[in-house]
Design brief:
Layout: E1 2-6, H1 13-29, E2 35-39, E3 44-47, E4 64-66, E5 73-76, E6 80-86, H2 96-112, E7 119-121, E8 124-130, E9 144-155, E10 158-166, E11 186-187, H3 199-214, E12 218-219
Parallel strand pairs: 1-2, 1-12, 3-4, 9-11
Antiparallel strand pairs: 2-6, 3-5, 6-10, 7-8, 8-9, 9-10
Helix pairs in contact: 2-3
């Protein structure tokens, strides 16, 4: 069984990182259950292992945390559900690409509960939604905005870091970075799409769809 923890209020980033590292080590040692941890953070930027210095547009705006997760720069802040995923990828087939695909499928399945169609795009990490009401791209393709970011790290085949899904964050805060190194597309949220979705609503959808995608019921 996978333990499911929801923390109210704002969780410090360093506190979250310390918890994840300790829990991942315990999972690898067989002394703790796998864990999904739902949090929110105060406004901050994180830099993944592929982050480019030029993509940090306003370095003095919010605290910047260097991480060892995959990916580039991301923003975390109130109104965004951060989902820390501490799962034993070793016992799930040791297939990192499949694991990431399962995480993407989990987000898409949860969004579908609100009639939002999420997409995965080659060469663009995260989950995207089409915005036909916006002017198309110069090549005529529909405009797309990112609604969820994904970045994980593995240690001894146990994952940590995870997902960030935009419920109702301050979208202007993303302007301090080039999110995930992609400048030609924007960022959106469930509320920005016109949906009166709360954090609790999303949490319920995530819990329900976790079993659908991973085949295990949440514990706790």
């Amino acid at each position: 069984m996978v333990e499911w923890i929801t923390t109210d209020g704002l969780t410090g980033y360093d506190e979250a990182l310390a918890f994840m590292e300790a829990r991942a080590a315990a999972i690898a040692a067989g002394t703790a259950a796998e864990c999904i941890w739902l949090v929110e953070h105060a406004p901050l930027y994180t830099a993944g292992t592929s982050a480019q210095a030029r993509d940090l547009v306003t370095p003095d705006r919010f605290p910047v945390h260097q991480t060892r997760r995959g990916g580039q720069y991301t923003y975390h802040g109130p109104g965004q559900r951060v989902v820390y995923v501490m799962l034993d990828v070793g016992r799930r087939g040791r297939d990192v690409r499949r694991f990431v695909a399962d995480l993407e499928a989990w987000v898409i399945a949860a969004l579908d509960e609100f009639n939002v169609t999420g997409h995965i795009r080659q060469g663009r990490v995260g989950v995207w939604v089409e915005r036909p009401e916006k002017p198309p791209m110069p090549d005529g393709t529909p405009r797309e905005d990112k609604i969820a970011a994904i970045g994980i790290r593995l240690r001894k085949w146990v994952s940590f870091h995870g997902l960030a899904i935009n419920v109702d964050p301050e979208l202007e805060h993303f302007s301090g970075i080039v999110p995930c190194g992609i400048a030609e597309h924007g960022v959106t949220s469930l509320v920005d799409l016109g949906l009166p979705v709360t954090m609790g609503d999303l949490d319920v959808a995530l819990r329900r769809q976790f079993e659908t995608v991973f085949g295990e019921a949440p514990l706790g």
